[in-house]
Amino acid sequence: MDIQQIVDDIYALNCHLQVFEKKYALSSADFYEMYVQGELDNGEFGQTRDFVEWAGFYKVKLELEDEFRRINRQRMQAVRASRAPLVPTTV
């Protein structure tokens, strides 16, 4: 996966996450912390379905952000090693 696709996917995920953040008035990071600790299960099916979807979107976002950082570190090392100018990637 190239860096532009990662950026596009993170943007799309943020749009999905904002829907849940507005609906439940809670940041995704705070929600996810409570979710993984098992603090949110009240047994209501609709809410549980929302939570599973929300957690899934957020987990994928975290994984993509990790990949983005990894690629950026590699790119930064290559630029430093070559002393080449930093040029924009194709969009």
Outline the structure in words.
With 91 residues, the protein is mostly helical. The chain has one domain (3-82). 76% of the residues lie in helices and 0% in strands. The chain has helices spanning 3-24, 28-36, 45-82. α1 packs antiparallel against α3 (45-82) and α2 (28-36) crosses α3. The protein is elongated and about 55 Å long. The two termini are 14 Å apart.
What's the domain count? 1
The best one-word shape is: elongated
Strand % is: under 5%
The computed structural class is mainly alpha
Give Rg in angstroms. 17 Å
Mean pLDDT metric = 90
Order of helices and strands: HHH
Question: Into which percent range does the helicity of residues fall?
Answer: over 70%
* Uncertain stretches: none
The largest sheet is: none
Q: Compute the separation of the termini in Å.
A: 14 Å
Number of strands: 0
Helix tally equals: 3
How are the elements arranged and paired?
Layout lengths: L2 H22 L3 H9 L8 H38 L9
Helix pairs in contact: 1-3, 2-3
Produce a short descriptive summary.
By secondary structure, the protein is an all-alpha fold.
Characteristics:
91 residues; mainly alpha; elongated
